[in-house]
UniProtKB/TrEMBL annotation:
It is a multi-pass membrane protein. This is Multiple sugar transport system permease protein. GO terms for biological process: transmembrane transport. Belongs to the binding-protein-dependent transport system permease family. PROSITE patterns: ABC_TM1. One of its GO terms (cellular component) is plasma membrane. The chain crosses the membrane at residues 12-31, 76-96, 108-129, 161-183, 216-242, 262-282. Keywords: Cell membrane, Membrane, Sugar transport, Transmembrane, Transmembrane helix, Transport.
Length: 292
């Protein structure tokens, strides 16, 4: 290396450090994405490599079958639950950022659900929601609220609320930790200046805290939206999408592995990606345009 000039050495080092990440990205991200787009234009069954190019027929089938996009109504439960989760996450983050005795212990308790594996979480909530021996109905009966006891997973009007609550419970701790990091980055001088000016606690939160964490809130809403559109593990492990709990991703997986139609499933995956990108653009252009 010593026979090369400093500029040449610099370029060689940069090239060496960038080569492996770029190759990995091309191998595991861009090539699969291009392949997915190609498969969506074929009738590939997923077995072997026999496939025929059928153009946009898969996309026509998606947009002409109401039951495909009908699954998105179940995704809406997770989105609404995610919005509620963001509010509670911010609430607990504000409390646990203040001078509260034992706040680190409370942080650990609220973060633990995120650490649990999704399968373990679903098995645990099966015991919570069980009609006969579930802890929820047992508790309601013990406090004299027998009329509130429900078939939480058997009632079509309640099951998606029950599953969305599991998602809220599991991921609230992660959002809370992100909010805590954002709140701790706000200078104390701003709050001291607000106190000197006679600002109340709500005014400090509205005019100091919220504007300071605006970008984090934007990130949380994007994650909430994408997480709702990609909801899969909790409804699939709990009920395999039965009892009208099937989400868009569950229908995509069933189309690929249950009905052996990888071409149509690839098209559904591409449509899901387009929906995510569209909602992100709408959010940035209209909801947060004032922050630019």
């Amino acid at each position: 290396m010593h026979q090369f000039s400093y500029k040449t050495q610099r370029y060689l080092i940069l090239f060496g450090f960038l080569t492996i990440p770029v190759l990995l990205s091309l191998t595991f991200s861009y090539y699969p994405a291009v392949s997915l787009l190609y498969y969506s234009l074929t009738d590939w069954s997923g077995l072997g490599w026999d496939m025929n190019f059928i153009g946009l027929d898969n996309y026509k089938e998606i947009f002409t079958k109401p039951e495909v996009f009908g699954a998105l109504k179940n995704n809406a439960y997770y989105f609404i639950g995610g919005l509620i989760q963001v509010v509670f996450s911010l609430y607990f983050a504000v409390i646990l950022t203040g001078k509260l005795r034992g706040r680190n212990g409370f942080r650990v308790i609220l973060f633990l659900p995120y650490v649990l594996h999704s399968v373990a979480t679903v098995i645990m909530f099966k015991n919570v929601y069980h009609v006969e021996y579930g802890s929820l109905n047992t508790l309601l009966g013990a406090i004299g609220l027998e009329s509130w006891q429900q078939s939480w997973l058997g009632d079509k009007h309640l099951v998606n609320f029950s599953l969305a609550f599991i998602s809220m419970w599991k991921y609230m701790g992660l959002n809370m930790v992100i909010f805590i990091g954002a709140l701790q980055s706000i200078p104390d001088d701003l709050y001291e200046a607000g106190s000197i000016d006679g600002a109340s606690g709500w005014q400090k939160f509205r005019f100091i805290t919220l504007p300071s964490i605006r970008k984090v809130l934007e990130l949380m809403l994007i994650l909430t939206l994408t997480g709702a559109l990609e909801a899969f593990d909790i409804p699939y492990v709990m009920l395999l999408g039965a009892n009208d709990t099937s989400t868009f991703v569950i229908k995509t997986v069933d189309t690929a592995f249950k009905y052996q139609n990888f071409g149509l499933a690839s098209a559904m995956a591409v449509v899901l990606l387009m929906m995510v990108l569209l909602f992100i653009v709408i959010q940035r252009k209209f909801l947060f345009k004032g922050g630019e």
